[in-house]
Target: BI1-like protein
Amino acid sequence: MGKHDKHHHHHHHHDVEAAYPAEHDGYMIETPELRWAFIRKVYVIVSLQMLVTVAVAGAMYLTPAVRNFFLSQTLAALAAFIVIIISPLLVMLPMVYFRQKHPINLVFLFIFTVCISASVGLGCLTKRGPIIFEAAAMTLVVVAGLTAYTFWAAKRGHDFEFLGPFLFAACLILFIYALLMVLFPLGKTAALVYGCIASLIFSAFIIYDTDNLIKRYTYDEYVAASITLYLDIINLFRAILIALEGAE
Model:
């Protein structure tokens, strides 16, 4: 039974693939039920990722031992810091490679989420509690608003694929700006400007990736869809946090 079942599942999976190839919009020939099930699945995964992030980053922030260790500026702390910063990049490779292989894709997704959560925790260690809470609340409101807007716009026939090249260019500019801020500490105003620009860019990313989720991702790409949305939300939170700190 197991073998037959597996074969049947594979066959069904293959059919789904055949019906909706990636490069084809496939948006009209599929059933709305299937697409909604896929969208729901992605939002459930992203919600769980956010819970993991709050738990891990919160535990790091609220545990005095962890805080003292990372703020101690010892070699061990520096090593741990570097490992946490690099870990998502290392996990990203197998995660992207196995993104369609169930259940290993979810295992890597979980590890990746924990790694990103730890880096978020690190970023919060030097910030004041109220500011972190404010940034998180603002992020939640912005994400909810942008998501609702994108679904409404998609229903009206609007398309956001054109944002792609602009967002790529914006990311490059943001990266150069961030590099300048690291090399030449430019003070609070620069941080505020950076935070505001980055917030706008990642808000646009949320619209772009939500639009892709509604129309373009094929059903076996739920891990890829979840990662992109999750990272957009995390980056938006980081940007708002930097802006709020700069505005203080």
